[in-house]
Fold:
Amino acid sequence: MAIQLYRIDDRLIHGQVVVGWGQPHNIRFLVLVDDLVAASDWEKELYRMAIPPEMEIYFADVDTAIRDHPRYANDPRPGILITGDIGSMLRLVKGVKAIGSVNLGGIHHRAGRAEKLRYVFLTPEEEAQLHALEASGVEVTAQDVPSARSRPLAEVLEGEAK
Amino acid sequence: MSESESTGPEKPRAIVVGHGEFSAGLVSAVGQICGLADKLVVLSNVGQTPEDIEATLRQQLARTGARVIFTDLPGGSATIAARRIARDTPEIVLVTGVNLATLLDFVFNSAGTPEEAARSAAERGKASLIVIERG
Structure:
């Protein structure tokens, strides 16, 4: 089964991930790839307590995730890998070279970002990183929950208002 | 973060925060049943970064003096934010998995400390989950 979803989501572990995707896909493990979380025992405990008992969670910084990706990919259980930002996913994709698709699940408003979808806001630098992901051979789509329509990157970048 | 609060003579004693309109619906129901919605502040996590959720919660706690936070899901972003606050603000009490019975018990319990009121409310909320088969 391995990794069912490679997701970029600035909330990391939350309801949409654990319940929205976790239940219909019968997810049994999560890989949280974040350099800051991986370096903090308190942060790891915070997210460990946020997942249901039937799920296991692994924490890794980007370099460790690149090294351990074969283990995640060969896990017989269905899993989700999450990064909190586009840059971390881009580093992972370039290091692993075996990721076929990436899901934009939530990149919320902050200074310098422009709205593309109600749950995707991007800076020009982040748009360039998404183009770089596609140039690496990765299909990039936006979809916050499984019941929503999956939107290709070109449509995302056009924005909902256009 | 979206926010609303009923007007009333007493300051709110708790913040209710969750997904979508969950909190607004619950607090509206409290108001309909007993008229004590003014004891609760409604917040939603819709469209917010984790930093936004935490900042708004801190702001509302400071403004109201409330010491109790009710959240909907143990693994939700509001709960994560509330746990970050509870880490550096020991007087804050967090109750996750809130339901209507929990809030009704809480708003009527004005005698004890916030901790006691939260504990009593959580017990009432748990007891209200009942499976009735072939009833």
